[in-house]
Amino acid sequence: MDLGGLLKKETRILGLSAPRRTHRKPIIGTIFRGRLWLDAIVTYAPDETKRGRVPGLAAALRRTKQYSQIQAAIFSRENILQHKYKDFRRLSKLVKFPVFVMTKEPVTKLPKNEVVRILLNKKRISLWINNYNSQRAKELYLLGCSEGQTLPEAVRVAELIAEGLQQSSRTK
Question: What pTM was estimated for this model as a whole?
Fold first, then answer.
């Protein structure tokens, strides 16, 4: 999946997150044009009995108006999908664009060619890239980050929404 050529600053990046401690975890996605502006918000509330989490999420992403323009998805952490990297690989095949995961797992557990380390604003970031071009993955990641930030805007905003959902579920 090589994007070819230079990346534009308006390249669409999908950031995905989920509340950490709610019973039924909805997955929240935000599509940004680079780091410039929010293009869309996607939500998916998994229904395990119908399709299963990964095919259902893939179908929800394919239904967005921006689907054909998304260059990559970046998950905020590895435990959003039940079977972790196996599910992320499957999702990437179903949506036909690269799926990256910000990981805190020891990178020694993962194949060396599947992890890229990024040093950004004195913070080390490990990104699982599923056999994708490591240089291109870094470019996509950095393209989405605002100056002085270590998270791409799409991921940062998806995390904020997910945290808000978690807070609201506690107050009920």
Answer: 0.89
